[in-house]
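Hi everyone, sorry if this is the wrong subforum. Our group has a chain we'd like a structural model of before ordering constructs, and none of us has done structure prediction before. Sequence below.
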Amino acid sequence: MLSSLYLRLQNRLAQALQTRREDETGQGMVEYALILVLIAIVVIVVLIVVGHQVSNVFKNVSNGLN
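Answer:
Right subforum, don't worry. Here is the predicted structure as tokens:
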């Protein structure tokens, strides 16, 4: 009887640890997603700020070739 109780306790502990590992994996993926969103926002802002200058450079080069 004591050994069956021990085995049930061991199984439940193993299940709890497995569930915890899965939760941490999901948390890591959320962190990576937030980092990617932050990088995307920075890239968009840089393109908006620098985009007009790059456009002007290409217009000047195009006008110089004509």
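For your construct planning: The chain has one helix and no strands. Helices lie at 2-65.
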